Amino acid sequence: MTEVLKALQELNVCWKKIGHYNMKCRWVAGTAGHHEGMINNSVHSNHYFGNDSCIIENEAVSKSNVVKFEVQLYKTREEKYLLDLQRVQGPQFLFLDL
Hints:
Elements: H1 2-10, E1 14-19, E2 22-28, E3 66-75, E4 81-89, H2 92-97
Antiparallel strand pairs: 1-2, 2-3, 3-4
């Protein structure tokens, strides 16, 4: 899971830990930096994005370029891992681009 979180961090994805292997995530397309309220300390900490009602306060960011998704990591019998990504909200093509 640490490697998954490192990859999400490189893509400027914010996440909120739901379980040991399950994260709620939010990605804003086209932004290079981080928004206020996000924590960027280490991979082991949440990139917490707070309540859904106050996710983005910046007027420059429209909802049309925000993708919310969930990540679930599974371990198979063959000692391999399966990463499941499920789009919750946002444009489908931006989700696929991510």
